[in-house]
Amino acid sequence: MVLYWTMNTPLNKLAKNWQNASALISILSLSLFFGLGAVADSTQLEAWIQSEARTAETRLVQNISPRDGLPGAVLASPSRHDPDYYYNWVRDAALVTEVFVTEFENSKMRPGADARHSAAENILWDYVEFNQTIQVAQSLTGLGEPKFYVDGRPFNGPWGRPQNDSPALRANVLMRFMKALQVRGRVSEAVDRVWPLVLNDLSYVSSEILSPSFDLWEEFKGDNFFTLTVDRAALLNGAQMAQSLNGLSKQRPSNNEKLATLWRIQAAKAEGALQKHVSQSRGQIIENLDYVTGSVARKESGLDVATVLAVIHTDTQPYLSYKDTILNQTLQKQAAQFQNLYAINNTKLTIAPAIGRYPEDVYYNGNPWFLTTLAFAEFYYRQGLAQASSDSLAQGDLYLERVRLHTDGQGHMSEQMDKGSGYMLSAADLSWSYAAFLTAIDARDKLKAAIVNDY
Ligand code: NOJ
Ligand code: NOJ
What we know:
Elements: H1 2-8, H2 11-16, H3 18-33, H4 37-62, E1 88-89, H5 90-107, H6 114-136, E2 147-148, H7 165-183, H8 187-207, E3 213-214, E4 220-224, H9 225-244, H10 253-275, E5 278-279, E6 284-285, E7 288-294, H11 306-312, H12 325-341, H13 370-387, H14 390-406, E8 416-417, E9 424-425, H15 431-454
Antiparallel strand pairs: 1-2, 3-4, 4-7, 5-6, 8-9
Helix pairs in contact: 4-15, 5-6, 5-7, 5-15, 6-8, 7-8, 7-9, 8-9, 9-10, 9-11, 11-13, 13-14, 13-15
The site of one 1-deoxynojirimycin has 9 residues, from helix 5.
């Protein structure tokens, strides 16, 4: 592993790390000499995961509640130009918040984690408060509006809007927070402070369920597997939540029942539309259909890692199971395409390929991304969790090794890595990259625990 890393590391980076690198090479040659290569590999991955987790969390927290913004605003990235990501994207913020809900949920099981628990909880309440502000801001598309300045004002410039995955992702993470509060006997906080935001989002999602929307990449307005999948999950989570709150919420119980019924009907409509994306004849999922407008009109392959992201972010209400044949074929086809497309994958490395968004991508010339490569890792960890399989752990780790290879010595992760050199590219310290790493390793930890308990 180390040997390959030095071989594929761009020269100036290597020069910078030369002392480390040569030290590592001598350790490696020693361990090879003694036949310990394999052992060294997995220990190094584990060690990297530990240190990267601390780095990722620190940098993620630095992107939250920036000094010039309101508490709870989440910067997509601190980068202010090339590209300008100095905004709170509703989607990115919701996916980042998954990390802190997970920490809040896990803390009960991990005694001694109290400081982290309350830090996570503070971030969650700030998130609630900031989103309360932006939900009622006068924006061009209301709750479908994709991004806001960190002071809570909507961004009204030209942009791909609406993006109807965003309110669903926010509702989903807020409902996870509500559940965690409920489990801790804090039902009234959940109902009084969080549920009103969820009601707003779900009433929007429910009424817009079949309306064309810009996709998560903000390029294709039409009918998107990702958007439909997360919207469906939000409506079904909402229906369950509404029923569980019967008699507790300020609304009359019958209202909750009516909402649950309506949301289930709308979710079924989403399922009808989703079926069209599952192509038996092509043996794959087609992410985008029925183009209306946008900068990307056609993707010949139909392949897009948005599909994988849809699956890992709707675990609680799966539309397709992790074992689904067409879904698994889709991942294989995607990996094969990216394997051929990017020079950095064209090596003798025994690790998985770096993964991009979709093969036809031209943004920054079309490169692999951290969050999509991490989504592959997380998919396999979660597949393993669903089936208690250790093969999936190994498969996921091959993608994590790929991410390790392109992460720099300080543990930074930007948005992309150059397809030719492997260097980081585009928005620096992208919050979503760190969040994708942290949720992937949380799934990995849980899978490892499940494997130990099983055997
Ligand atoms: C910015 C979007 O965020 C990105 O996803 C897209 O590829 C480019 N604009 C080009 O449309
Ligand atoms: C561009 C990505 O395509 C989009 O998904 C993301 O929300 C923004 N960048 C902000 O990170």
